[in-house]
Amino acid sequence: MARETAETPGVASESPEFADLPNGMAVARRAVLHPSGIAQQCGVTYPMLGSHLKKSGAEPGRLYSIYFFFTPLLTRMENGIFYTPSSPDKTVPTDPANGIIVVNHPEVKAAAMWHIGPYQKLGDTYKALCAWIRAQGKYPGSLMFEEYYTNPMEEKDPAKYKTRVYMSFSDSFLGSMGECSIM
């Protein structure tokens, strides 16, 4: 298992790699908000989505967050839970009144690395991932994706949180976000 290093607290010591973003069916909610509201958004959204999946009879999978853009003043994000339908012909309904949508995430190439530690240190992991993408001769993209392997409701020690962090990239400056001004 990857561990954080003394030089880069919160950043996994495992080397970054190119990988596919997690894909498949998910229920989700999207929001545009100030970054200070992310924890509250997650705290409201994940229980709501879990309850929705339970009522639909679907088997919940991993929780995730996607950041479509992230600035110090504003972020556009999606919180979701991947799921497996109870049967191939059964679908999970949307719930427009609560902003719940059903999405099918396609396979997308990305750069990835592990983050071990508190969520407040995720910015350090993204910066390391950005630097690695540039070192590969690529350009960091604007899509950032976090897949949560630890449930904070069950594990109370943030130092033990395990998150797989992904970032899109491009072969050209066009289609990239340019400079990494993350978190």
Structural summary, described in words:
The protein is an alpha+beta fold and 183 residues long. The protein has helices at residues 38-56, 122-135; strands at 17-20, 24-33, 59-70, 75-84, 101-105, 109-116, 139-148, 162-170. It has 2 helices and 8 strands. The chain has an 8-stranded antiparallel beta sheet, covered by helices on one side. Strand 3 (59-70) and strand 4 (75-84) form a beta hairpin. The longest helix is centred in the N-terminal third of the chain and has 19 residues, at 38-56.
The rounded Rg comes to: 16 Å
How does the overall form come out from the CA principal axes?
globular
Q: With helices defined by DSSP (H or I, 4 residues minimum), what is the helix count?
A: 2
SS strand fraction? 35-45%
Largest sheet: 8 strands, antiparallel
Helix and strand pattern: EEHEEEEHEE
Number of separate strands = 8
How much helical structure, as a percent, in the residues?
10-25%
How far apart, in Å, are the first and last alpha carbons? 26 Å
- Give the neighbour order of strands across the main sheet: 1-6-8-7-3-4-2-5
Name the average pLDDT.
87
Summing up helix and strand content along with how strands pair, one would put the structural category as alpha+beta
Name the poorly predicted regions: 1-9
